[in-house]
Every structure is written in structure tokens, then in C-alpha cells.
Amino acid sequence: MMNLLFMSLTDWVTGSVIVAVWCLVLFPLRRIIFKLIDKRLPKNAHAWSQILLRALRLPIKILILAGALSLATHFFPLSEQAQKVGNALVTILIVFSGVIFLSRFFVGLFERSEERHLELRNYSGMSRGIIYAIITLLGLMIVLDNLGVSITPLIASLGVGSLAIALALKDTLENFFAGFYLLIDKPIAAGEFIQLEGNLRGYVEKVTWRSTRIRLLENNILVVPNTKVASSVIINYHHPEKEMAVLVDAQVDYKSDLEQVERVTVEVAKEIMKTIEGGVPSFEPFIRYKKFDQFSIHFTVILRGQEFVAQYLIKHEFIKKLHERYEHEGIAFAYPTRIELVEKLKNEIKD
Q1: Residue 293 falls in which region: left (phi positive, over 0), alpha (psi -120 to 50) or beta
Q2: What's the DSSP call for residue 217?
Q3: pLDDT digits 0-9 by tens, 164-192
Q4: Nearest one of 246, 238, 225, 214 to 176, comparing CA atoms
Q5: For residue 136, what are the contacts with CB-CB under 8 A and spacing of at least 6?
Q6: Which fold has domain 181-236?
């Protein structure tokens, strides 16, 4: 009896010493190694190496504890049932460390993407939740499988439940993935002026996980589901650049000197480009004659604005100035007289 007690006490002491040495050596060693590595790594918090280092800190601690527990179950004189419980705890700790590592690593990668694509911040909370949920669920299934619990019914239940949730949230999920496409492909971005089908035009305020908010020129907010935006034909007036042509149609009388018309019109256009806010001073305006009409010669004046909304003031001031200059130069804008209208009507009646 004394020999049995002595052997048991010796096993407890031996096991305690081994576990203590394991912890006293590996915990300080872990701290030293991480400090040395940290000094040699770039200080950018979103660098790959920093993401990996942050993801490993806590899991390494848990793995050291799992190793200590495994040594304890091996060297301590425990009952068979106690050893089974100890081994199960070791398994849980190992899987738990893996779950923490993967969660932190993938969240770190997402944060790294956020730094480069600020629009992804609209998806920040939901994306983190999805990452944690998926990895935790996988970890739970691994633990249950290692403990001898059948996960087949759980997988079947999850499949049925996922299908039910997907059907219930069909529109929400469609908008979520459409919004993710808009953020990654970047056909539009916050601050850009766009036009959607149906002549809907305005500045993009924000692309969220469900909808795109557009501030119309009337200063109202238009909320469009992401699926509508993703499937719509989009004109982005900020690509490939903000500057755009401003076209003004006009017509002059057949008796006009076209060389004089071109010279005067271009002079007025150049003045507008240099003096009106939103014009492009370096741009050289020009005109293009288009066609002979019944009462006039048509042409288009090509100016340039710094962005889409600049065209309204440019056209406004150009038309005023051109009218004033034509009056001064004796150039007549074409308009049908009453006699000409009567003749046109007679011809139409004959036809």
C-alpha cells in the first residue's frame, strides 16, 4: 500500500514538474520570440506580416496551455474517465486556437482591403460577423466530430435552415452581393456624377450593403436598390475624366457671312471659357456647321466644362453673350417669317 502511494505521489510530482517547466519555459520564450519578430517587421498595421503576427499571439498561448494539459493527462495518475475528459479539453483548446487564428487573420485581411478600398467600410460589421460565424461553425463541427458526436443531422439541419433563410432573405442577399460587386468593380464611387436608366442623374453619396444613395440635382436623395444599379446602364460623367464637352446648337440666316459667324462665335466662346466659373481656360472652342435647313444654316459650338453641372452656367452665359455680340456685328439669327410659314404650310398641304 505504501509503495502504491509512493508511486502515485512520485507520478504527481513528476507530472507537476514537467507541466511547470513546460509553462515556465514556453510562455517567456513565446514573449521573447514575438518581441524579436515585432522589431524586425514593418510598423504598418495592415502589412501581411503584422496581420499574421497579431493573429498568432493568442492562439500560441492557447496551444501552450493545450500542451500543458496534454502532458498532465499523460503523466498524472488519472482515471480513464478523467483522461478522456482531459483529451477532449485538449482537442477543444486546439480547435479553439485555430478558430481564433483564422478569424483574426481573415478579419485582418479584410481590414487591409478596407484601407485600400474605403467603400468596403460600409460592409465592415456584416463582413466581420459572417467571417466569425462561418469559422466558429466549422470549429464547432470539428470538435463535435472529434468527440464522437454525429454531425450528419446537424449538417442536414443547417442545409435546410440555410435554404429557408436564403429564400426569406432573397432580395436582401441579392442587394448585398450586388453592392459588393459595385464596390469591387467600381463602375461608380462616392462623389461621382452618374446617370442611370430613366434619365436619373445625380452625385453618388454612398454605396451601402443594401442600396445606393444618389443626391439629385434638386438636392433630394434617391435610394436605389443595389440590384437595380448593378443591372442598369450607367453613364459615369467622371470617367475617364471630369471634363466634358459642352455643345450649344445655333442657326443663322442664309445671308450671313459664315466666316464672320465662325470668327465671332469662337471669340465669344473663348471669352466664356476664360471668364466663367466651370469653364476650361486652356480649351480652344470651335464650331461645326451641320446642315442647310429651310430657313437657316445650323451649326454646333463645342465648348468644354470642368464637370457635368458646369455646362448649365456656361450655356447660360454663352447664349447671352453671343446674342449681344451678334446684335453688335449685325449677324441675324434665323427664324421663319410669317410669309415663309404660310408658304411652308401650303407646301405641306399640297404634299
Answers
A1: beta
A2: T
A3: 555 545 566 677 778 777 877 788 888 89
A4: 225
A5: 99, 103
A6: SH3 type barrels. (2.30.30)
* DSSP one-letter code for 53: H
Specify the DSSP class assigned to residue 123: G
% of the chain residues with pLDDT over 70 = 79
| DSSP notation for 135-192 | HHHHHHHHHHHHTT---HHHHHHHHHHHHHHHHHTHHHHHHHHHHHHHHHH-SS-TT-
Cell of 348: 405641306
**CA-closest candidate to residue 41, choices 54, 27, 26:** 54
For the chain, the domains span: 2-149, 181-236, 244-329
Q: Tally the C-alpha atoms within 13 A of residue 40's C-alpha that lie toward its C-beta.
A: 6
pLDDT digits (tens, 9 = 90+) for 57-113: 888 998 888 888 888 887 777 777 877 888 888 888 888 898 888 888 888 887 777
Residue 314, Cβ density class (10 Å: 0-12 exposed, 13-18 middle, ≥19 buried):
buried
Which overall architecture, per CATH, does domain 244-329 show? 2-Layer Sandwich (3.30)
- pTM reported for the whole predicted model: 0.58
Confirm if 56 and 101 have CB atoms less than 8 A apart.
Answer: yes
Report CA Rg, the chain. Answer: 38
Grade residue 162 by pLDDT with cuts at 50, 70 and 90.
low
CA distances from 163 to 29, 137, 210 (A): 48, 17, 20
